[in-house]
TrEMBL record:
Chain ranges of the Dihydroprymidine dehydrogenase domain: 10-119
Organism expressing this protein natively: Methanospirillum purgamenti
Keyword field: Oxidoreductase
Protein name, entry field: NADPH-dependent glutamate synthase
Taxonomic lineage of the native organism: Archaea, Methanobacteriati, Methanobacteriota, Stenosarchaea group, Methanomicrobia
Gene3D superfamilies the UniProt entry points to: Alpha-helical ferredoxin, FAD/NAD(P)-binding domain, NAD(P)-binding Rossmann-like Domain
Superkingdom of the source species: Archaea
InterPro entries in alphabetical order: DPD_II (IPR028261), FAD/NAD-bd_sf (IPR036188), FAD/NAD-binding_dom (IPR023753), Helical_ferredxn (IPR009051), SudA-like (IPR006004)
């Protein structure tokens, strides 16, 4: 059914992508070759039986298709919307060699939306084991681990520092890409399995890690919510935000509706977003919906932008100006931001990942007028809790070191998601969480 028109999009925060109609879904699913060795499944970090659910959609059996997906994926309506399928399952679809690959993500979303409209069924639990597991953080890693552990019959307590569950799904990804009622419905289903959610509990501050010692196992899913800054003059001026803070103010605290909601955000007419990833696109498109003229400054070339192609396309359609091969050197202003000075960059040798290394061109600077600067240059693991646990091995970036099974150097502690990998993807966090939950159940003797 395509995307909403640009004029309609900019009126509110409603979802841009309208998804597939039943007729479109059947037609798309009918293109699937039902490969005997389906390459697409190899590209799925949670191993969804893709040909099976696609075949059910082709037959018009939408609810059975959703049931089939749910056996491997507890968050299908979310994944159908935000997974980078073009580099995962769809990248490996055999049809992609000659024509367009099957639109697996759209079909997953379609089946999950049909199921939600009819009413979701709470997954069954095994017999109670009497074992207690604490899960810290309710992003995709924590919520999926909690669901898997509840299915295995354990008593699960899920601690979340914020006043709403979901992690980045709730506070980071804007509702024009991921509507909050979709997130709520999938999380509520997991909570309905008997998971005890404790909001406003910052473990390591309002709850000490020693208080968790009574649990039989602990799973850390505290994410990578620590924003990095450029370290340039002017970063403390009023009107400078990290993308995390800016998006949290709007997605979670509804600053766009201040004073109806308590949290304000700076008035913005001209916004400069620094960075080129998905988070930068989300921040830029959000600022655009706040009525601002938005310029994105990225230090490499347009073809090097790390964001998904679809996100870049949507941002450009919505009128966001891209200035590439440029990097900020100073934010200007007295108390509040009035502009940003940037230097032009040239591409030199390649780094280890094959990307060009940008180098500044001496004295080639320019200034952009703006009243808000949003920095989106990456984020690292949240240190509040992991820095306090004695004997927990950490990598150079502060990430918790785990084995393939999610175990850490502490015998009772497992970890999954961005706190182990650094900023990654929803489905990677979910894949790690499923594995860590399996390992915990094995350790507790219930598998
Ligand atoms: C703006 C943005 C857009 C993104 N877009 C996409 C996308 O389109 N597709 C995609 O696949 N990925 C995307 N990502 C990445 C993806 O969201 C993350 O990889 C994923 O959410 C990681 O899940 P997680 O559960 O490990 O961590 P998080 O989602 O960060 O959740 C961690 C949770 O732990 C809580 N917490 C932290 N410390 C404590 C503590 N001490 N006590 C209690 N609770 C604690 C936090 O409040 C948070 O709720 C995006 C990320 C951002 C920031
Ligand atoms: S690889 Fe493509 S065509 Fe083959 S089963 Fe998977 S989705 Fe269908």
């Amino acid at each position: 059914m395509g995307d909403k028109s640009v004029a309609d999009r900019l009126k509110d925060f409603g979802e841009v992508d309208n998804g597939l109609s039943p007729e479109e879904a059947i037609e798309e699913a009918s293109r699937c070759l039902q490969c005997k060795k389906p390459a697409c499944v190899d590209g799925c970090p949670v191993n969804i039986d893709i040909p099976a659910f696609v075949a059910l959609i082709a037959k018009g059996e939408f609810l059975k298709a959703a049931e089939s997906i749910r056996q491997q994926n507890l968050l299908p309506a979310i994944c159908g919307r935000v997974c980078p399928q073009e580099t995962q399952c769809e990248a490996l679809c055999i049809l992609g060699k000659k024509e367009t690959p099957i639109r697996i993500g759209q079909l997953e979303r379609f089946a999950a939306d049909q199921e939600r409209a009819k009413g979701l069924t709470v997954p069954a639990r095994k017999t109670a084991t009497g074992k207690r597991v604490a899960v810290i953080g309710s992003g995709p890693a924590g919520i999926v681990a909690a669901g898997e552990l509840a299915k295995d019959g354990h008593d699960v307590v899920l601690y979340e520092s914020l006043h709403a569950p979901g992690g980045v799904l709730t506070y980071g990804i804007p509702s024009f890409r991921l509507p909050k009622d979709v997130v709520k419905a999938e999380i509520d289903l997991i909570l309905a399995m008997g998971v005890d959610l404790r909001l406003n509990h910052l473990v390591g501050r309002t709850v000490s890690h020693q208080e968790l010692e009574g649990y039989d196992a602990i799973l850390l899913g505290t994410g990578a919510g620590l924003p990095y800054f450029m370290g340039i003059p002017g970063e403390n001026l009023s009107g400078v935000y990290s993308a995390n803070e800016f998006l949290t103010r709007i997605n979670l605290m509804h600053a766009e509706r201040f004073p109806e909601f308590d949290t304000p955000v700076a008035r913005m007419s001209r916004v400069v977003v620094v960075g080129g990833g998905n988070v930068a696109m989300d921040a830029a498109r959000t600022a655009r919906r706040m009525g601002a003229k938005v310029t994105l400054v990225y230090r490499r070339r347009e073809e090097d932008l790390p964001a998904r192609a679809a996100e870049v396309h949507h941002a450009q359609e919505e009128g966001i100006e891209f200035i590439t091969c440029a990097n900020p050197v100073r934010i200007l202003g007295d108390q509040a931001v009035t502009g940003i000075e940037c230097i032009r960059m040239q591409m030199c040798n390649l780094d280890e990942s094959g990307r060009p290394i940008p180098e500044p061109i001496d004295n080639d600077t320019f200034t952009l007028d703006c009243d808000v600067v949003i920095q989106s240059i990456g984020q690292g693991p949240n240190p509040v809790l992991v820095s306090q646990i004695p004997g927990l091995d950490k990598g150079r970036a502060g990430n918790v070191v785990t084995g393939d099974d999610g175990s850490t150097s502490h015998p009772k502690i497992f970890a999954a998601g961005d706190v182990t990998t650094g900023a990654a993807t929803v489905i990677m966090a979910m894949g790690g969480a499923k594995q860590a939950a399996r390992s915990i159940s094995e350790m507790l003797g219930s598998r």
